[in-house]
Design goal:
heterodimer, A: mainly beta, 6-stranded mixed beta sheet, 0% helix, globular, B: 7-stranded mixed beta sheet, 4-stranded antiparallel beta sheet, 48% strand
Amino acid sequence: GENVEQHPSTLSVQEGDSAVIKCTYSDSASNYFPWYKQELGKGPQLIIDIRSNVGEKKDQRIAVTLNKTAKHFSLHITETQPEDSAVYFCAATPSHNNNDMRFGAGTRLTVKP
Amino acid sequence: DGGITQSPKYLFRKEGQNVTLSCEQNLNHDAMYWYRQDPGQGLRLIYYSQIVNDFQKGDIAEGYSVSREKKESFPLTVTSAQKNPTAFYLCATARGTVTNSPLHFGNGTRLTVT
């Protein structure tokens, strides 16, 4: 089955700097890669996703890149703000079903004002 | 997510007791899921249901049971057979099972068993 590894486990940046979180996956058939943000005491929320037929996707300060050959994908947050502080999870699935989705272990991002 | 209600937020139980976690949704989503979250680990799938009166085991179903008698409700029972039940439990829904409908999560129930 799919296995997703996520790095780093913790990341601290100064407000205004960029943050990058990286994930690798094992199943070359994986075709859907969502990113979730989890704030303290809450459930994860989808912030951006990418499909395997696209190499990059942007949404304001957030972007995701996908390298299918190397089987890794990354989340980029530019001009970070204190409210970006949260735990971020990557995920991958080789099918159209969410039940096959596998999650990374999470990255705790802290943005210092 | 305001459309998914998990209750209670905190739950304490003695070892050997069964406990049921509630998950209710008003999003009219067909699919519902239960995940377990432990510190330093990704979300792990316990059970899922794609339609009323049908559910399937996920990766870590041992010691858990579910029911799906109504579209809106997907309760999870943590039985005494679950060896390490203390964890944060997340319920999620998705509009359907076609073309990777995004998961919508509730705010979780933190279960502590002593």
